[in-house]
Structures are given as C-alpha cells and as structure tokens.
Amino acid sequence: MLGMYTYQKVVLYTVASLTAERAAFRWDNSYRDAVSGMGKTGEYDGLYWRLADNGVLQSLFEMGSGSQGGISLTIREAVDEDNGRTAQSLPQKKLGNQADRVMQPLEGTIEYDGGLQQRIKIKLRKPLSVPVLDSLLGHSEPRALSAAVIVDPVELIRNVDLVRYYAGKFAGQSGRGKAQAREVLRKRQSLHDGEQ
After folding, report:
1. Which domain of life is it from (predicted)?
2. Do the beta carbons of residue 87 and residue 196 sit within 8 Å?
C-alpha cells in the first residue's frame, strides 16, 4: 500500500515537473510544439505582447492594475473551458495549453508568477482515498509541487531598458509626465482589449 502511494507521488511529480518545464520553455513563443518545443517557421508571438499582459508598464506608471502578471488556472477548468479561451490574455492561453496536457484524473493548479524572476508553478493531486494512510499521514491523496523559472533574456533586456529610459526621463519632473504616460498606456490598453 505504501509502495503504491509512493509510486503515485512519483508519477505526480513527473507530470508536474514536465508540465512546468515545458510551459517555461515555450513561454517566449506559444506556437512551439507542446511536446518537442520546436517552433513553427514564421509563427511567433508579437514582439510587444508583454506590454499589456505582464503588468510591468502598469506598475511603472502606478496605474493600480500592475499585478506583475500573476495568473492562476485550475487544471480541470482550463481543460473544460478550452473553447472559451479566445477572450483570455496570452499568458492565460499559454498556461491553458499546458494544462490541457495534464491527464485525467489529476487535479490542481498551474500558476504564472510575474515580476523580475518569472516562474511557472504547478500543484497536482490525485483523488485517492486510502483509510490506512489517512490515519498515518493525515491525508491519502498524493500531492506534488513543481516550479520552473522562465528564462527570457530578450524580455529582461527590454524591461531593464524601459525602466532606465523612464527613470531618466521622469527624474526631477513633476507627476505631469507620468500622468501623460498613464493616459497613453490606457488608450493602448483599450485598443488591445478591443482587438481581442
């Protein structure tokens, strides 16, 4: 019985680890194949998709909605709502594409934590009830947690340059420059929302 529980934990950790690593690897181009990671020729995400989706600009201009891109999806919901994903942001679609690959009956969440060090976290559990393990461990459902860091040097360079540019531009100025930048960003965001 304990051997079966250990085996289930190993399977869960393997699935969680593979899913997190694949999502992190594919983060820069959502058109990559979900398993092999090979990109399709001529198909890629737009250069500036991150401007609206990761919250960096919103936090830079103090717009209040700069969540640093923190997104969480429940795996079964992501799979069940596959057809309703058209109105979601690109990071949600990227997470959903990996959530689709998690096999039944596994349940859990897949998360994207934005900010300076971006990472994908996945928490999985397998619904399983073994009364003996419930009394020994307090629970009998095998659980696993895995995380992978998103390495995107191009985005890091862009973000550093953006912060350096605006820090120099707004140094010693009143809030008028930031207010103008906020207004431009709001207009850009409304155009972006209208395209989806």
Report:
1. Bacteria
2. yes
